[in-house]
Amino acid sequence: MLLYVVEAVVPILAIQLVWAGRLALRKEKERHKRIAAIHASSMWASYLLVWGLIMLGQTMKGNAARWIVETHLVIIYIIPALLVFMMATGLKGIRKPHMALAALYVVLWSAALVTGAMIFLSHRGFI
Fold first, then answer.
1. What are the φ and ψ backbone dihedral angles of 58, each rounded to 5 degrees?
2. CA-based nearest residue to 109, from 79, 86, 88
3. What domains can you pick out in the chain, each with its CATH number?
4. Whether pLDDT at 67 is above 80
5. pLDDT tens digit string along 37-66?
6. pTM above threshold 0.70
7. Whole-number Cα distances in Å, 9 to 28, 47, 67, 86
8. CB-CB neighbours of 43 under 10 Å
9. What distance in Å separates the CA atoms of residue 111 and residue 29, rounded to the nearest whole number?
10. Which of 1-5, 67-71, 98-102 is predicted least confidently?
C-alpha cells in the first residue's frame, strides 16, 4: 500500500510535464529549463522511493493482470534513464535529439500513467 502513497504524486508530475512542454512549444527556453529541472528532480525522487520500497519487499498487490504490472515496472525503470539522456541533449542544446527523446518520454510516461491507473483500479475492484 505504501507504493500507492508514493504514486499519489503522479498528478503533480503530470502538471509539471504539461507545463514544461507548453513552455517548450512557446519557445520560453529559460522557464522551460526551470520547470523541466523541477520535473526531473520530482521524477527521480519518486523513482528512488518506489525502487526503495520494492527493495524493502513492498509489492503491487491486487487483481491486476501480471502483464500489466510487468509492463508498468519495465516502463518506470526505463523512464529515468531516458530522462538523463533527454536532459543531457537539452542542456547541450542538441535540439533534434532532445525533441525526439521528449516525444518518446511523453509516450512512455503516458503508458506508465495508464498502466498505473489500471493497477490501482484493479486493486480497488473497479476493473
1. -70, 145
2. 79
3. 2-123 (1.20.120)
4. yes
5. 999 999 888 888 878 877 787 666 666 778
6. yes
7. 26, 11, 24, 22
8. 20
9. 27
10. 1-5
Q: What is the pLDDT of residue 16?
A: 93
Q: Which three cell numbers stand for residue 58?
A: 513492498
Closest CA to 13 of 38, 50, 48, 32: 38
pLDDT greater than 70 at residue 68: yes
Given a contact cutoff of 8 angstroms between Cβ atoms, the answer to whether 102 and 94 are in contact is: no
- Return the residue matching grid coordinates 520530482: 42
41 to 33, 34, 45, 125: CA distances (angstroms):
12, 11, 6, 33
List the grid coordinates of 20: 514544461
Q: Residue 3's pLDDT is what?
A: 67
- The Cα 15–Cα 12 span in angstroms is 5
Lowest mean pLDDT among 8-17, 59-68, 103-112: 59-68
Nearest CA among 5, 7, 3 for reference residue 112: 7
List the Cα angle 12/74/114 in 5-degree steps: 45
Structure-block grid coordinates of residue 114: 495508464
